[in-house]
Amino acid sequence: MRIDVLTIFPDYLAPLELSLAGKAREKGLIDVRVHDLRAWTHDRHRTVDDTPYGGGAGMVMKPEPWGEALDELLADGPATVVFTTPSGQPFTQAVARELATRERIVFACGRYEGIDQRVIDEVGSRAEVREISLGDYVLNGGEVAALAVTEAVVRLVPGFMGNAESLTEESHEDGLLEYPVYTKPASWRGLDVPPVLLSGDHAAIAAWRRDQAVRRTAARRPDLLPASTLLDDVEIRPVE
Length: 240
Ligand code: ADE
Description:
Blueprint: E1 2-7, H1 19-26, E2 31-36, E3 49-50, E4 60-61, H2 63-74, E5 80-90, H3 93-99, E6 104-109, H4 117-124, E7 128-133, H5 143-154, H6 164-168, E8 187-188, E9 191-192, H7 202-220
Parallel strand pairs: 1-2, 1-6, 5-6, 5-7
Antiparallel strand pairs: 3-4, 8-9
The chain binds adenine.
C-alpha cells in the first residue's frame, strides 16, 4: 500500500517513522511519502490561504496548490483521496477496514477554516474521495487525523500483524468494546483476577468475556448496541 500525505507541516508526520507504521515500512508493506503543500506554490511567500468569499472569520486554503499537488500525485495512478476534516464522516473500524483494501491513499490535511470546496468537488470527479473526521471536536489541522487513520489502517494490512487473532478479538471488531484483560500475578494489592479466567474452562471464559463486553458497551457506549437481543440475559449495571 502506498500512502501520500499532503500537508503544510510535514514534520507533524514524523511519528510515521516509529513503531507500528515504521515496522510496516521496513517490511515493505507500506510506502509512505510526506509532501509539503508549499512545494506547489509559485509566489515568494509560498501562500496557501486567503480570506473567505462571503466574509467571516479565519482563512481558507487556496485551490491552486491543492489542485497541482493532487494532479501530480494522481498522475502516478488511481488513489483514494482522504480529506481529514471535522465535517467529514466519522472514522470507525469499519471505515479502517474499507481503506485497508485500497492500493493507494492520498491524505489531504486541511488547516485553518478548511480547503476551498472546489478542490474536493474537482478531485471527486476523477478519484474516489472520502471526507473523514476523527471525532466531534476540532483540531488545529488534519495531520493528527491522518496519523490516526494511517495507524488504524496499516495494522489491518495483511501481513502486518503477527497475530491475526488479536485483530479479531479487539475493541470494535465485533461491534462491542473489549472485555477487561488481566495478567500475572493472580493477586495484586488485594485484587484478584476473576476466578473464571483461571479455571481452564474455555467455554466459561468465552461466555464471561462476552458478558463483560456487552456490559461495558451498554454502560459506556449504548449507541453501539443495536436494538437487538444481545442484552436479553445481561443485567445492566454501571461499569466503574
Ligand atoms: N481537522 C480538524 N479537526 C478535525 C477532526 N476532528 N477530524 C479530522 N480532521 C480534523
